[in-house]
UniProtKB/TrEMBL annotation:
This is Uncharacterized protein. It comes from the Eukaryota. PANTHER family: E3 UBIQUITIN-PROTEIN LIGASE RNF213, RZ-TYPE DOMAIN-CONTAINING PROTEIN. InterPro entries: RNF213. GO terms for molecular function: ATP hydrolysis activity; ubiquitin-protein transferase activity. It comes from Octactis speculum.
Length: 216
């Protein structure tokens, strides 16, 4: 409880709710505001996120998606017997392995769509600035005064800003390259890949810094 006996609002977030096969339970929580018939307290607010139910337009870059997994039916060339349980995978042709949402949940959905290339670039640049902050040794922004009849001041990019700018261009180009290889599928590359890229970059940077005498 809060001051004066008031109950504080508690927000509960469920991520990727349609990746599990308990959609009936989430429908009850989100739409009916109850769990197994018991009403939720009024101070609890529910927010849920789900992945889109979308069919694949192309196969994997390396092929063999139909052979992934250990449970479902696999047909091996030259063999008449199935490998696995013989059960066909109902989610094999989906971009995300998700289950259909109950119709009563459809009215609660807000489609955010996907990031535009320009917006994604802003996110990537912000991530790089934050994660590569240790490489920023510039305390003050550098400026140059150019003499002339009308003297003016322009701001020059610091080495760190130039690193972030070039790194951002490279990451954006890599993201679009992967999407082109997958037939324009936006979900084939995400901001999670940016984080992994920076982690690898930092590891190599620290590795070569610690062992610079070996490589000189």
């Amino acid at each position: 409880g809060g001051a004066g006996g008031e109950m504080r609002t508690l927000v509960i977030f469920f991520d990727e709710v349609n990746t599990c096969n308990s959609m009936g339970l989430f429908k009850e929580i989100v739409c009916d505001r109850q769990v197994e018939g018991k009403p939720l307290p009024p101070n609890i607010k529910i927010i849920a996120a789900c992945n889109p139910y979308r069919l694949r337009t192309t196969k994997s870059l390396y092929g063999g998606e139909e052979m992934a997994g250990l449970v479902f039916e696999h047909h091996v060339a030259g063999q008449s017997e199935n490998v696995g349980s013989g059960i066909k995978d109902p989610l094999r042709n989906l971009v995300y392995r998700v289950h259909p949402l109950p119709e009563s949940m459809i009215d609660h959905i807000f489609d955010f769509g996907s990031l535009s290339s320009e917006t994604e670039r802003l996110y990537i640049m912000a991530m790089l600035k934050k994660q590569l902050g240790n490489y920023n040794e510039e305390e003050e922004e550098e400026t140059n005064n150019t003499p002339g009849v009308f003297a003016y001041t322009y701001q020059r990019m610091t080495p760190f800003e130039e690193l972030v700018d070039v790194f951002t261009d490279l990451v954006c180009a890599a993201q679009e390259c992967i999407r082109d290889l997958y037939g324009g599928e936006r979900s084939s590359a995400s901001l999670r890949d940016v984080r992994r890229c920076v982690d690898i970059f930092k590891w190599f940077g620290e590795h070569f810094h610690k062992n610079k005498e070996i490589y000189e």
